[in-house]
Design a protein that fits this description.
Shape: elongated
Number of domains: 2
Organism: Marinisporobacter balticus
Structural class: alpha/beta
Oligomer: single chain
Family: Belongs to the bacterial solute-binding protein ModA family.
Keywords: Metal-binding, Molybdenum, Signal
Number of helices: 8
Protein name: Molybdate transport system substrate-binding protein
GO biological process, one term: molybdate ion transport
Distance between the termini: 86 Å
CATH superfamily of the largest domain: Periplasmic binding protein-like II
Helix content: 40-55%
Length: 263
């Protein structure tokens, strides 16, 4: 009887130990599952969609961390962040919106530049309006289409460029449309809705056969840095910082692939 009692105690100890190992294993698997399903939320300028999508996909493959991307023009993204007060990454089209976001108090860290927004003039193939410079945009008969200055970084930059020419008023009189994104400006010009437009250099990358591209004199052009930032609302600050570092390291080559200038 003594031996039977001793045996029962022994088996109870063994089963308890196995149970602890099982629970520990379950806990470990649960933790791994939780880590593998962690998500970063990023607000990205519409003009940066292609390169940032590639970077988010390669980052997930490398780390297992998913990056959910919201694309819109920079002005709309600002409103979203301010309204929702959520998210980890904010990457608008340029420093203008980053500075405004800093003033509004929701930027944590800034890295970059990753690439540059370089404004160029576009015309339909053949350049019937004979545009060769920014100053030519002031001529009678020019029908100019530009990105909206309140919604886009490139739109804000365009008005700064006009100011530097000394012909700001004449150029602004020729604006027939302010559109939500540079991509929409490019579409309008290729369809003949205007004889001149201003977009970002990378927007022309795939449509050179349909357009004439006129680069601006560096003395008047306003090249803007494209940074990546983290938000104060982030609940995954270490992960957000790691993704920013990944973009800083791998971003220039990826942006270059899509026609952005990186130097």
């Amino acid at each position: 009887m003594y031996n039977n009692k001793k045996s029962r105690i022994f088996y109870l100890i063994v089963f308890s130990f196995v149970g602890l190992l099982f629970l520990g294993g379950c806990s470990s698997k649960a933790k791994q599952k939780e880590e593998s399903t962690k998500v970063l939320f990023a607000f990205i300028g519409a003009n940066l969609k292609n390169p940032v999508s590639d970077l988010a996909e390669s980052y997930e493959k490398e780390t297992g961390i998913k990056v959910e991307l919201t694309f819109n023009n920079s002005g709309a993204l600002m409103n979203q962040v301010e309204t929702m007060k959520k998210g980890d990454i904010f990457m608008p089209g340029g420093m203008t919106f980053v500075e405004k976001a800093k003033e509004n108090g929701f930027i944590d860290q800034v890295m970059g530049p990753i690439a540059y927004h370089t404004p160029v003039i576009i015309t339909p193939k053949g350049n019937s309006a004979k545009i060769n410079s920014v100053e030519d945009l002031s001529r009678e008969g020019v029908e100019l289409v530009i990105p909206d200055k309140d919604a886009t970084a490139i739109g804000k930059t365009a008005y700064k460029i006009f100011e530097k020419t000394g012909k700001k008023d004449e150029i602004e009189e020729n604006i027939i449309a302010n559109l939500e994104t540079p991509a929409k400006v490019l579409a309008a010009i290729t369809m003949g809705q205007g004889n001149a437009g201003i977009v970002e250099y990378s927007n022309t990358f795939k449509d050179r056969d349909k357009l004439e591209v006129i680069e601006m004199d560096p003395k008047v052009n306003q090249v803007e840095e494209i940074p990546v930032t983290s938000l104060i609302y982030s609940t995954n600050k270490d992960m957000a910082l790691d993704f920013m570092k990944y973009i800083q390291e791998n971003g220039p080559a990826t942006f270059e692939k899509y026609g952005f200038k990186t130097k």
